[in-house]
């Protein structure tokens, strides 16, 4: 072995010994030196700062309950016990001491001394007993009554603590926590069928009652418009002129005019003094599905399969606005005097509230998952309802705030009607008709009238329904080519037809 190799082998042996015996202890020493200073240890608590912090914390978090008295012996016990045991007085009077930052007036069940009537800061031991609950005894009730005299609100048993934001600070307040229950629905007498009117040769698609409540008008797939006497149900007049199904009719309350629209893209104005068409409103590119008159302005609004709604000047026949925004056929339109003045429902599953002056969308409601074929405005409340195969939804004007769902009519809902008594009617494609209490959404009656003899069972759809002006009769337009008239059962009482209502937890889907 050469001298150089011996030197390298000796150095390697020295390095090995060095790494085993020395480096381990060096690393340990370094670790020890690193933590010997104990930098993670907190700074010693300053008594004055701690007291200031505690006083501020008590005022901000326990301010509303600082006036409440605490049991004297319990306070002494809990000074060093983080889990105090609350005494059970079982109706006996206890000795109380007011531990608060404000003077507390004397009252029944609260024993005060000269010390407690002086405004002072509580000690740390007293701070731990500030939020102690009093036992369920007469002393607690008396203390609550005394608190009412100070200006605090007395809360019954079964309250819960909730955080409230006020003035930029968080306060703890006691509020009552109750389970949300379904309100009891108003009792409505059941409706019964009392007249079936025949005369049309096709599906009866639309219906309207004139403001004088003497007659009503219907439009049909036989391309005719028929006027019927409301009292007797006899045919008074037939109007011909449309070359396709008549989808909408309405009678003006401001002039002797009848307006109609149909799948022939035409919108007609009929003069009922001469029983002839005096105006046409041209512009829609496809079938016109519905129309409505503004209650205070001479304006007509129509909706069409061309995905638009149009506003017309009744007298000049000029188009005022074309309401664009829907992406599918617009099935229904409603007008009112208040804002928003126009509401449309579409097959694109949306409802739009329109600014009539600007001709633009004010709000778009996208809660429905299927096409919206019916919209109805409540005659007295500032609310409306929309019908879709998924469910019926109620909304609040002017921004379209959601109120509640009316679920259970599992069919394609073609029409909705509501009266002043809060009876909402929904008619569906399968011939079923559900009657609801508007306020609670309770379904108090379901009707499935038999089809006219000679018609197919599949021809049982209800395309339109409306109440007459007295709201004592309900008229429906159906697929069996008949018009059915319903009225309330005068012999029914709440005892004979009770509401099968159960006070259960409210279950309302948000969307």
Automatic annotation (TrEMBL):
Keywords: Repeat, WD repeat. Gene3D superfamilies: YVTN repeat-like/Quinoprotein amine dehydrogenase. It comes from the Eukaryota. WD repeats lie at residues 197-238, 239-280, 281-322, 323-364, 406-446. The keyword Repeat applies. SMART domains: WD40. GO terms for cellular component: catalytic step 2 spliceosome; precatalytic spliceosome; Prp19 complex. InterPro entries: Prp46/PLRG1-like (IPR045241), WD40/YVTN_repeat-like_dom_sf (IPR015943), WD40_PAC1 (IPR020472), WD40_repeat_CS (IPR019775), WD40_repeat_dom_sf (IPR036322), WD40_rpt (IPR001680). GO terms for biological process: mRNA splicing, via spliceosome. Transmembrane segments: none annotated. Involved in pre-mRNA splicing as component of the spliceosome. Component of the PRP19-CDC5L complex that forms an integral part of the spliceosome and is required for activating pre-mRNA splicing. As a component of the minor spliceosome, involved in the splicing of U12-type introns in pre-mRNAs. Belongs to the WD repeat PRL1/PRL2 family. Identified in the spliceosome C complex. Component of the PRP19-CDC5L splicing complex composed of a core complex comprising a homotetramer of PRPF19, CDC5L, PLRG1 and BCAS2, and at least three less stably associated proteins CTNNBL1, CWC15 and HSPA8. Interacts (via its WD40 repeat domain) directly with CDC5L (via its C-terminal); the interaction is required for mRNA splicing but not for spliceosome assembly. Component of the minor spliceosome, which splices U12-type introns. Within this complex, interacts with CRIPT. Also interacts directly in the complex with BCAS2 and PRPF19. This is Pleiotropic regulator 1.
């Amino acid at each position: 072995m050469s001298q150089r190799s011996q030197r390298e082998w000796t150095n390697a042996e020295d390095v090995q010994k060095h790494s085993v015996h020395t480096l381990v202890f060096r690393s340990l020493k370094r670790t020890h030196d690193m933590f010997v200073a104990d930098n993670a240890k907190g700074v010693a608590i300053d008594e004055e700062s701690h007291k200031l912090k505690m006083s501020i914390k008590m005022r901000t978090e326990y301010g509303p309950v600082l006036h409440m008295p605490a049991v004297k012996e319990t306070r002494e016990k809990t000074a060093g016990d983080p889990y105090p045991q609350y005494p059970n007085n079982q109706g006996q009077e206890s000795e109380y001491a007011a531990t608060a930052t404000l003077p507390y007036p004397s009252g029944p069940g609260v024993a005060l001394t000269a010390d407690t009537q002086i405004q002072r800061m509580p000690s740390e031991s007293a701070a731990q007993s500030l939020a102690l609950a009093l036992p369920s005894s007469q002393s607690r009730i008396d203390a609550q009554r005394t608190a009412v005299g100070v200006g605090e609100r007395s809360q019954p048993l079964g309250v819960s603590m909730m955080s409230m934001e006020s003035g930029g600070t968080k306060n703890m307040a006691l509020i009552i926590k109750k389970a949300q229950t379904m309100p009891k629905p108003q009792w409505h007498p059941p409706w019964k069928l009392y007249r079936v009117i025949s005369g049309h040769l096709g599906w009866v698609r639309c219906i309207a009652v004139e403001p004088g409540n003497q007659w009503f008008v219907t439009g049909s797939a036989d391309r005719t418009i028929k006027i019927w006497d409301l009292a007797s149900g006899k045919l008074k007049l037939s109007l011909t002129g449309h070359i396709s199904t008549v989808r909408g009719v309405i009678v003006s309350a401001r002039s002797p005019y009848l307006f109609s629209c149909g799948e022939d893209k035409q919108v007609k104005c009929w003069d009922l003094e001469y029983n002839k068409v005096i105006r046409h409103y041209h512009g829609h590119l496809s079938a016109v599905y519905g129309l409505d008159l503004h209650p205070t302005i001479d304006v007509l609004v129509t909706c069409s399969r061309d995905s638009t709604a149009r506003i017309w000047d009744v007298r000049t026949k000029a188009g005022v606005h074309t309401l664009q925004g829907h992406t599918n056929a617009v099935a229904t339109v409603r007008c009112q005097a208040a804002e928003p003045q126009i509401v449309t429902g579409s097959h694109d599953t949306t409802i739009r509230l329109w600014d009539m002056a600007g001709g633009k969308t004010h709000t778009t409601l996208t809660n429905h998952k299927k096409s919206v074929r019916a919209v109805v405005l409540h005659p007295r409340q500032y609310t409306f309802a929309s019908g879709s195969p998924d469910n019926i939804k109620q909304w609040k004007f002017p921004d379209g705030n959601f109120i509640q769902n009316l679920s259970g009519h599992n069919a394609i809902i073609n029409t909705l009607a509501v009266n002043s008594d809060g009876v909402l009617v929904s008619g569906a494609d399968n011939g079923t008709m559900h009657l609801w209490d508007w306020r609670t959404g309770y379904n108090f009656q379901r009707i499935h009238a038999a089809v006219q003899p000679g018609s197919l069972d599949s021809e049982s759809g209800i395309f339109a329904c409306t109440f007459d002006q007295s709201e004592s009769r309900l008229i429906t337009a159906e697929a069996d080519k008949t018009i059915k008239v319903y009225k309330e059962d005068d012999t029914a009482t709440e005892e004979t037809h009770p509401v099968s209502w159960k006070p259960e937890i409210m279950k309302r889907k948000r969307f």
